[in-house]
Amino acid sequence: MLDLIVISTLNGVLFGMLLFLLSSGLTVIFSMMGVLNFAHASFYMLGAFFGFQLTKWIGFWPALVLAPLLVGAIGMAVERYGLRNTHRHGHVAELLLTFGLAFAIEEIVSMIWGRSPVDYRVPALLDFPAFTVFSTNYPAYKIFMLAVSIVIFVVLLIVLRRTRVGLIVQAALTHPHMVGHLGHNVGRVFMAVFGVGSALAGLAGVIAGPALVTQSDMAASLGPILFVVIVFGGLGSLPGAFIASLVIGLVQTFAVAINGSLASAFGPLDPAAGPSVLGDIWNVSVAQVAPIIPYLLLVVVLIVRPVGLMGTRES
Amino acid sequence: MRKLTLAIALIVPMFGQVAAAEDTVKIGYIDPLSGGGASIGEGGLKTFQYLADELNAKGGILGHKVEIVPFDNKTNPQETLVQAQKAIDAGVRFITQGNGSSVGLALEDFVNKNNTRNPGKEVLYFNYAAVDPSMTNEKCSYWHFRWDASSEIKMEALTNYLKDIASIKKVYLINQDYSFGQSVRSDARKMLAAKRPDVEIVGDELHPLLKITDFSPYIAKIKASGADSVITGNWGQDIALLLKAAADAGLKVNWYTYYAGGAGGPTAIKQTGLDHQVFQLTEGFANTGHQAAMDYEKAFRAKANMSLWYPRAVNEMRMFKIAAEKANSIDPVKVAAALEDLKFDVLDGGTGLMRKDDHQFFQPIYISSFGKLAANEPFDEENTGWGWHLVSRVDTPQAMVSTTCKMARP
């Protein structure tokens, strides 16, 4: 029992940090521009495929730097030539633009790399078990992912809280118009923020690609959970996203470990009643519903506390 | 303007005439070409295209050219029905499908209704991989033929093998949460209880189909249960990711699988270092030692650039040709009648039978393990240097199960 708790905690933290890696860029963009970027997971996928291709050509470590820069550049282009034009038509237009973009990126990626998974492997330098807990190995690569997530969290926090750039971003968060009136080029700030956010997604892709599976539907499979993280954590709050990622990672991992169902807690329904819809629900184990628990959390948070865990802006 | 309209009105039906007279047998291939099952679906498509080319090189079927028309169903039953209707509208009279029994059941029902409503325009459903037993039992259909062994037949073969392995004491079941995964778990429970009552089932897990990105939590659970063996029907990315997570965590158990040989599986097993500890149930594999099959494998790999996952697809297409020639027609109704009780020497050796009672094809079943190659085993998988090795062969009579099918015949 103890080993399952320890190992589930470790797995939960590792998965949670991956979620944070993915959602940090999204929350920065969301908080800054109020744009729910539906294409964010697509930028993550682009990062993974660029990472795969560049790794083949020039090796993993240069790819780790180059691929996010490429994705960031694409992000900036999207902001400059796409979002900026639709901005005056309001948030719905922006949302629809990113929504369409997500589908376009998926199609383009599957045209170039095909729909089957590509053979994107963990670099040889990190391909060994880092440590063993209760005879379960933890690959060095997962620890590397954890370290990168924490570094990104700290760097982002310092930039947002302690620098001039951060000051403007923070100000734009609560008073976007005032920042413009003070003479800052809000357009350029937006473009930079969108670029950085996309680059972070790209970085997450390069790193997560070998650990998960790099294929053309990876955006669709991870996209929805990211929205849960940023809404649950609170609009515009980086620490909120950090905590939310951890909570969701842990909740999902522990839920899988629990075999209990309503039936095991309160006893089976009247057996004479036979199989029924109610009986089916009664017998579903927590493990079986693990994947939908985060979405239930999302619904509950939106009802109880719409600004999220650590949100700062009602919007 | 009126002249133009008149010209079009005259010419367009002529095109229709030309198309109808065109000498092709269209086979609609309805399987996932996107999403989590895409890698498997693309492999199947390549296989059928290779088989069609092969038939065409030898003059096609009764002089008709064979054409494979792909349709993407995204492993989704609703989408499948849309695609099936599209296929029929495009002139398809033979549909082949395999991935996902939920899809297979929907398609079987669709074909039934279609054939009742459109007499004279019947469609046949050639199933090469959907193995839910109900498809040839309570939900059996005259228009459905299955070349893969049902999950029940495979479990029968597996448990007949396992009953003599004394080292197995604790078994963990992990399966996808839909009809096929559920039938694997219930058959495993039932048959193990009958043949090895001393074996303890220490876990019985169902997880969402093709939705999990990280199986580490499930691996932690298997480890905590103290299992020495895992039985799983997982396929597509679900088996590759499951084995990958096991490899990362260093879980050392024996894996008894239906589909570890699918795309990504062999690579993941090599990473686990589980030399000859992952087993698979198939109707054939690369290193069976049967010369004709091994020659075929070699030629297939050279052209398709993948290994032959579906020897049953070879059986299916060859039997289609034989049945059409026997009936001297490519009319689906006549082909169906000719397929019934058709005996056929399968690719990997031995004789199979398309049973009339339920349209289930019975054939020898192989249990093979994945690991370092022996001297007489030339084929590896996914360039890992490891390949499948023969462990046990269950002959056709021992791989037969009874059926509850009460077939309505036209």
Automatic annotation (TrEMBL), chain A:
Transmembrane segments: 12-38, 58-78, 90-113, 140-160, 189-212, 218-235, 242-266, 286-304
CDD domains: TM_PBP1_LivH_like
InterPro entries hit by this protein: ABC_transp_permease (IPR001851), BCAA_transport_permease (IPR052157)
Main location: membrane
Membrane topology: Multi-pass membrane protein
Residue ranges that the Swiss-Prot or TrEMBL entry lists as coiled coil: none
Superkingdom field: Bacteria
Pfam family name, one: BPD_transp_2
UniProt keyword list: Amino-acid transport, Cell membrane, Membrane, Transmembrane, Transmembrane helix, Transport
Compartment(s) of residence: Cell membrane
Family that this chain belongs to: Belongs to the binding-protein-dependent transport system permease family. LivHM subfamily.
This protein's name: Branched-chain amino acid ABC transporter permease
Organism (species): Bradyrhizobium ontarionense
UniProtKB/TrEMBL annotation, chain B:
Residue ranges constituting the Leucine-binding protein domain according to the UniProt record: 24-368
SUPFAM superfamilies: Periplasmic binding protein-like I
InterPro entries noted in UniProt: BCAA_transport, Leu-bd, Peripla_BP_I
One Pfam short name: Peripla_BP_6
Signal peptide: 1-20
Top-rank taxon: Bacteria
Keyword list, A-Z: Amino-acid transport, Signal, Transport
Keyword Secreted: no
Similarity annotation: Belongs to the leucine-binding protein family.
Protein's recorded name: Branched-chain amino acid ABC transporter substrate-binding protein
Record organism: Bradyrhizobium ontarionense
